[in-house]
Amino acid sequence: MIPDNPYLLLTPGPLSTSKTVREAMNRDWCTWDEDYKSIVQDIRSSLLALSNGGDEYSTVLMQGSGTFSVEAVLWTCLKPEDKILVLSNGAYGKRMAKIVSLMGIKLELLDLEEHEQASPEKVEELLKQNPDITHIGMVHSETTTGMLNDYAPIAELADKYNKCFILDAMSSFGGVPLDIRSPKIDFLISSANKCIQGVPGFGFIIARREVLQACKGNSKSHSLDLYDQWKAMENDPGKWRFTSPTHTVRAFLQALEELKGEGGITARYKRYVNNHQTLVKGMKNLGIEAFLSEEDQSPIITAFHEPSSPDFSFDKLYHLLKAEGFVIYPGKVSKAATFRIGHIGHVFPEDIKRLIIAIEKIKFW
């Protein structure tokens, strides 16, 4: 028999969840039933409140991983004649650009180094040089490195130049405070299994109603038509167009209740920051340095340089730590040898301290 929780997931999602979130999945639901649809509506309104969107915005839930929701936004809001500027300093910015390229939409890519933030001056220069740009897309928390991109100056430029602004807040929403109206975000995208601390199965989009309404008929994808999904949920409140992940949805409602019980996003952000600071300090004491400078690091996940010793092996570290009750992430930085440790989810500073003790115990390099 597999134990309930054999190890702690120190990843950017899926992540370690509370026992009560997992227990919320222990019954079945009918997607047509009013009880279930009321759960969906509670989730939609709760997410809207967390974003501070108000009547100007609406929430749409979408089956699949977070990337499904990113693709749904792009298929729905981009027309054949449009052009999007994508800011990329990691794998997930590149993924957004790849989706756009596969769609055949005109793309302006600002391809940055993985340790580099987008300069507002450079973005404004590109907007002036390319007046045909209609949309700007970027990632808030780039988990390739743990970079927390400063989206606010870019959103302000989008507003100034009348561009639609798309923010992939997959790994930040619910764990990093933000106000969707200030500066204005037109489409904010996130996922159930990130900072809200639910389980995988669906993503969600918080969209400005005026912009979403103008997207009718744009999508060339049937399943990923965000407008049609939204209209279905509006016309028959809480009803998805196609079979929804009912168990995941119920678990997410429990996760939202636990976020509220913790003290909301501000309190959760403080815990994540404490986790991060405890981790970086402990790793530094062991001679392991973070990849990014402190001012760029997010409270979501941290990339570390691999020790220079020829005896070091990530696979060996991974399996030894797994035996100690911790699962970490391999590196994704293209030009440096790194590994990553996440500090979101049902994880607390005491857990990070136990991790540091475990690394010190097994240190083999």
From TrEMBL:
Annotated catalysed reactions: (2-aminoethyl)phosphonate + pyruvate = phosphonoacetaldehyde + L-alanine
Keyword Transmembrane helix: no
Domain of life: Bacteria
Co-factor(s): pyridoxal 5'-phosphate
InterPro entries reported in the protein's UniProt record: Aminotrans_V_dom (IPR000192), NH2EtPonate_pyrv_transaminase (IPR012703), PyrdxlP-dep_Trfase (IPR015424), PyrdxlP-dep_Trfase_major (IPR015421), PyrdxlP-dep_Trfase_small (IPR015422), SP_NH2Trfase/AEP_transaminase (IPR024169)
EC number: 2.6.1.37
Pfam families according to UniProt: Aminotran_5 (PF00266)
Keyword Transmembrane helix assigned: no
Residues holding substrate: R340
One of the protein's GO biological processes: organic phosphonate catabolic process
Residue span(s) of domain Aminotransferase class V: 27-305
GO MF entries: 2-aminoethylphosphonate-pyruvate transaminase activity
Record-listed N6-(pyridoxal phosphate)lysine modification sites: K194
EC class name: transferase
Keywords: Aminotransferase, Pyridoxal phosphate, Pyruvate, Transferase
Family, per entry: Belongs to the class-V pyridoxal-phosphate-dependent aminotransferase family. PhnW subfamily.
Role this protein plays: Involved in phosphonate degradation.
Annotated PANTHER family: 2-AMINOETHYLPHOSPHONATE--PYRUVATE TRANSAMINASE (PTHR42778:SF1)
NCBIfam families with a match to the protein in the record: PhnW-AepZ, PRK13479.1, transamin_PhnW
Self-association and partners: Homodimer.
Protein name (record): 2-aminoethylphosphonate--pyruvate transaminase
Organism, scientific name: Cyclobacterium marinum (strain ATCC 25205 / DSM 745 / LMG 13164 / NCIMB 1802) (Flectobacillus marinus)
Gene name of the encoded protein: phnW
